[in-house]
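4.2 Preliminary Data

To establish feasibility before requesting continued support, the project team ran the inverse folding procedure on a target of 387 residues. The structure was first converted into the token representation described in Section 3, and no sequence information of any kind was made available to the design step. The complete token record follows.
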């Protein structure tokens, strides 16, 4: 892939809003996980989640929580710029406006002909991109990816390919809000940790859910240089695969993950030794972390770079994970640090990777991986922008 410039970024999560707040939290290993307060789930309790503070939500009562999260991050990525010409907007998500659908159900219990259909207006995934375009006055195509937890990583990869094909700009990212269907659904699969999650730890016993939104603004290098703009980072490779091993469990040997990573490196024209840091999917479930370590060892071998998961800080944000972790990767390169794996105290010898440590480090190329249910595997290669 011809490299594509990242000229704007926006992110909101349990760590706060904006690039400085997230860079500082990641550099110092802070976690935003705390007991769930957004709703109650009978029989489960208030397990730790990455919940976004109310003041970071876009104002408005008719928008879904996902829309309000997405608007916050998208507006920050654009930062008041006027985007000339019809561009491309690509979004990844898994739940859409289902928080409103849940309210409708609990009020009417699915009764046919029930009132308050306004609560259902924002249910479809596509309404998030529609709302962003309307509120931020953006013209162009709108695409929505729903490939489980790799959704927004694919959104960024596809958006980059559209820039290479001639689109004047692309706004790409992802969002998911906390809701009962995911909180209770992951609990029913026995995948939710009782305490804060511990990626790659020997005692890990499940993930912590989170909500977030992240967006990057992409442009062709020629357009950025012509106006004297600043490049925050580059998207240089995208790889995806679908191993379809199981509806929820990853391929035990990481076959699909290996293929996605190798495709991304090939697309970027990089050898494994060129990568200086891996932002791992690292969900803290027993199966994922073991599978991912096998995949990383298969690709990198003795040349394995430092690896960490940021989900101990934000929780697993599902459809938003790929996008916020792409932003985190660019922040790490710009700040010359590798985020530590929050929650890791006793590394699992069966999930063997080179764990990232504190301290300054020269990071010029990052692999960011995202693996979703159904064997939806995606990897992005990102490189450092202007010094």
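Position-by-position output of the design step:
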């Amino acid at each position: 892939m011809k490299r594509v410039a990242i000229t704007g970024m926006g992110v909101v999560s349990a760590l706060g809003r904006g690039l400085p707040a997230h860079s500082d939290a990641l550099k110092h290993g802070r976690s935003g996980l705390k007991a769930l307060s957004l709703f109650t789930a009978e029989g489960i309790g208030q397990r730790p989640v990455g919940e976004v503070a109310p003041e970071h939500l876009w104002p408005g009562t008719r928008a879904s929580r996902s829309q309000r999260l997405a608007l916050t991050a998208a507006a920050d990525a654009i930062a008041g710029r006027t985007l000339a010409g019809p561009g491309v907007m690509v979004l990844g998500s898994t739940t859409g406006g289902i928080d409103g659908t849940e309210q409708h159900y609990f009020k009417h219990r699915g009764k046919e002909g029930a009132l308050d259909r306004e609560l259902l207006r924002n249910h479809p995934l596509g309404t998030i991109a529609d709302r962003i375009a309307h509120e931020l006055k953006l013209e162009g195509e709108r695409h929505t990816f729903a490939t489980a937890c790799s959704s927004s990583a694919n959104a960024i990869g596809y958006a980059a390919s559209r820039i290479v094909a001639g689109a004047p700009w692309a706004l790409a990212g992802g969002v998911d809000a906390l809701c009962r269907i995911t909180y209770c659904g992951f609990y029913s699969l026995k995948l939710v940790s009782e305490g804060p999650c511990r990626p790659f730890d020997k005692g890990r016993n499940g993930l912590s859910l989170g909500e977030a939104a992240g967006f990057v603004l992409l442009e062709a290098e020629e357009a950025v240089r012509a106006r004297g703009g600043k490049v925050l980072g580059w998207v240089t490779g995208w790889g995806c695969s679908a191993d379809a091993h199981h509806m929820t469990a990853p391929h035990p040997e990481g076959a699909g993950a290996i293929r996605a990573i190798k495709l991304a490196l090939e697309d970027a024209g990089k050898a494994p030794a060129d990568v200086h840091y891996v932002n791992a999917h690292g969900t803290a479930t027993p199966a994922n972390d073991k599978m991912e370590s096998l995949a990383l060892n298969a690709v990198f071998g003795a040349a394995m770079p430092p690896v960490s998961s940021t989900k101990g800080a934000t929780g697993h944000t599902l459809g938003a994970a790929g996008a916020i972790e792409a932003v985190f990767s660019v922040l790490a390169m710009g700040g010359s640090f590798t985020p530590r794996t929050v929650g890791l105290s006793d590394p699992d010898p069966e999930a063997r990777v080179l764990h990232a440590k504190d301290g300054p480090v020269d990071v010029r190329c990052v692999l960011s991986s995202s693996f979703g249910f159904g064997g939806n595997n995606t990897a992005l290669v990102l490189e450092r922008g202007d010094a």
